[in-house]
Design brief:
Strand content: 25-35%
Distance between the termini: 81 Å
Order of helices and strands: HHHEEHEEHEEHH
Largest sheet: 6 strands, mixed
Radius of gyration: 21 Å
Helix content: 40-55%
Shape: globular
Structural class: alpha+beta
Strand order of the largest sheet: 2-1-6-5-4-3
């Protein structure tokens, strides 16, 4: 009788345990980024998400973060994770990102470390504490050229750089294409 009770308790415990590891959720997150799967994003994100990029911090409501993901998706990003490990419930990854915006501004993939934290099987924090490959000189030079040229030749698009909505991203992409076609 005791072994049956122990077996029932063990089965109950296993069925109540986490459905997947945080590594699995992190992999789903990068899949969301690569495939613009917003319904999956809703499932794996907490109601608010803290993002940190070096010292810059911002808290997004889930709906606002998904809007930001839609902005990112316009540029057709490709995220590649070269290393991912979990330690005490936190996932650390090394990520390479390339897309039309990054290729224009940086001229090569941006590579960075990322730390993802979880609460009840959902992501509540995405931190980028360090860039491994980011050339600020190239990025700033190309952004300055683009902004100056747009201001002079297509002032109707001026301000796109600060608009992190899907419409802003479409204007950003249009600005890049107009600049590229002219040069």
């Amino acid at each position: 009788m005791t072994s049956k009770l122990l077996l029932m308790l063990l089965l109950g415990f296993v069925s109540c345990s986490k459905s997947g590891s945080n590594i699995d959720i992190a992999k789903q997150y990068y899949s969301v980024l690569n495939n613009s799967n917003y319904s999956e994003a809703k499932r794996i994100l907490e109601d608010s998400i803290l993002t940190t990029e070096i010292a810059y911090k911002k808290v997004f409501l889930k709906t606002d973060y998904i809007e930001f993901l839609k902005w990112d998706a316009v540029f057709k990003p490709k995220y590649e994770v070269s290393n991912m490990e979990e330690n005490h419930g936190t996932v650390k990854a090394i990520v390479s990102k390339i897309d039309k915006r990054v290729l224009f501004l940086h001229e090569s993939p941006i590579i960075y470390k990322q730390i993802i934290q979880f609460k009840e099987d959902k992501i509540y924090s995405v931190e980028t504490p360090e860039y491994i490959n980011f050339n600020d000189t190239i990025f700033s030079r190309n952004r300055k050229k683009l902004l100056g040229w747009i201001k002079k030749n297509h002032p109707e698009l001026d301000g796109f750089i600060h608009d992190q909505t899907k419409v802003g991203a479409l204007n950003y992409l249009k600005a890049i294409n107009l600049y590229s076609d002219a040069h």
